[in-house]
Amino acid sequence: MTRATLALFMMLLTTAATACPAPPPPVRDLSLERYYSDSIGSDVDPAKKAAHVRATAPLKIFVEHAAAYADKAYRARSLPVSNAACGLRWIKAWADGGAYLGTIDGKQAQAQRRWDLAGIALSYLKLKRWATPEDRAVINPWLIKVADATRADFDDAGVKRNNHWYWMGLGLGAVGLAAESGAHWQLAKGVMADAARDVATDGTLPLELARGSRALHYHAFALMPLVTLAELAASKGEDGYALNDGALHRLIAKTVAGLNDPSLFDKLAGVAQERPVKPGAGWIALYRVRFPEKFKQLPQQPSSHRWLGGDVEVLRQVVGDKH
Fold first, then answer.
1. Would you say the C-alpha torsion 172, 173, 174, 175 has a positive or negative sign?
2. Residue 207 · residue 265 · CB < 8 Å
3. HSE-up of 315 (CA within 13 Å, CB side)?
């Protein structure tokens, strides 16, 4: 980089920093009430859900904005200064403030932290090519601390290792790549192996099948972290799809069949499924690109979600670029 180019870059970086809106205050402590009215997590209490949405609004704003800045930066990577600087500024501010490292009260709060960790770490994975040494010195250790705290939640035997375990695995895997922590990647690989063992021969997940009228919903929800984690593994030359005789393929096939005809899961779960069924986000787009020959028809779904770090098409390009 010539002196003139460097000077221009620094000028644009300074301009971007001043144009970037201030991030919301870091959220260190989190207390959330469970919003289901039944023990199996199938019946959502509307009042409790509304309270949950209000309580998590600052977290949603932060994670969505970080993901949006990361996507915009990568799409315009010939001169991504404004969005890259803003995304890094937001993540660094929460790292500086020790976000998610205070008192995390309740299983719902623990779940929120693991979902948000996955989204933030994947956004940072998209942004890290533009991170300065100072950025990395603050953000990397913070991500590792949040990942370790998230993993420690499962030391409580009362926390089920269902889709929550898989979301934690995605968070660990994203931190492993983004913060360049081999130890966290190895933990994520262990979660992938666990998930493959969890898939029954008929392609269902027994713990998600037990979710009553939301069994199909939770099969699709579980696939969001699992397919994304398999794609991260593919970027390292590892095949998460092949584990346990192609368990992830079986899970996808059964879930796609259910999304195309929910009556299949009415029978499997022994109760009518909530309709319309939400297909989740991102996993179909990723799977379609890697295995275009598998299905003639796949359900429509969004390709972007904050807990997947934004647009999975961008993520696929980022990990394909080995950055």
1. positive
2. no
3. 36
pLDDT at 269: 97
Query: Is 175 within 8 Å of 120 (Cβ atoms)?
Result: no
Is 236:247 a contact under the CB 8 Å cutoff? no
pLDDT tier at 77 (50, 70, 90 boundaries)?
confident
Q: What is the DSSP letter of 102?
A: S
For residues 323 and 318, what is the distance between their CA atoms, to the nearest angstrom?
A: 6
The pLDDT, as a whole number, for residue 231 is 98
Q: How many CB atoms lie within 10 A of CB 74?
A: 24
pTM of this structure: 0.91
**In terms of residues, how long is the chain?**
323
Distance CA 228, CA 10 (A): 35
Give the closest residue to 13 by CA, choosing from 67, 88, 101. Answer: 88
In sign, the C-alpha dihedral spanning 139, 144, 148, 150 is positive
Contacts 24+ apart (CB under 8 A), 296-300: 297/260, 298/256, 299/256, 299/259, 299/260
pLDDT digit string, tens, across residues 248-297: 999 999 999 999 999 999 999 999 999 999 999 999 999 999 999 998 88
